[in-house]
Design a protein that fits this description.
This protein has 258 residues and is of the alpha/beta class. It has helices at residues 35-43, 58-69, 83-96, 116-125, 143-160, 177-183, 192-202, 229-245, 247-257, and strands at 22-28, 49-54, 73-77, 101-104, 130-137, 173-176, 207-214. The chain is built from nine helices and seven strands; from the N terminus they run E-H-E-H-E-H-E-H-E-H-E-H-H-E-H-H. The protein has a seven-stranded mixed sheet, with helices on both faces. Helix 3 (83-96) crosses helix 6 (177-183), helix 5 packs parallel to helix 7 (192-202) and helix 5 (143-160) packs parallel to helix 8.
Amino acid sequence: MAHAIFVQAELSFTMTKSTYRLCCIIPCYNNSSTIRTVAGRVRQKIDDIIIVNDGSNEETTAEIIALEKEGFRAVHRSQNGGKGAAVKSGFQAAQDAGFTHALQIDADGQHDLDLIPTFMEISKKAPDSLLLGHPLFDDSAPKLRLWARKITIFWTHVETLGFAITDPMCGFRIYPVDAAIEAAAKGNYMEFDIEIAVKIVRLGVPVINVPVPVRYLTEEEGGISHFRMWEDNFAITRTHVKLVLSAIPWALKSSKKR
């Protein structure tokens, strides 16, 4: 397995293996047909799961409430705020409950959950690190999204002045919770995954990129895309502009600390 580890500056926090506590955060918006299966499979590997109900419809909310009665943790947001907003609510719930790390996965079942033990093993050995899924797409991936992804990857390398991040958009990752909250990402929708990855790198957190097979599910399989063509593309572009403009000041500040 190929890993890439990159350190930008002195860490402002450290973690010991003895204090390691992992939970899983699953942001969920109208994934009524997949959330039970995904949560159940994750629970075979991780005991503590936080499902964030991001203002879902009645059918999905009822499913999440039923899962709560079966011992799953849940955070219910009254209104849909976007994937980023949901994950940030999950971070706060995780920190409040004393978890040091959080595995983030999507609720639609597109990720290979059999890789969770691999992520856990790597994370426990390198608890200070951010683990990012490096997606390996099959023929189900829309070609337009693949090209757009390449553009985002290029700008992410500019924003971090290096190649720490192989792919900033995969939703399969393990965060050190304190670093995730300290990063203070502003984005609430699809731009969130990009922004928080870049900002965590800028905190000086090492990154480990882990290959992850990804398959896009059909509607019949329960696949639901929440990507908003105009709004999300605009938000992603705006986020890149802000991160590019802040790259040089960040680099200068980091060099002074060395």
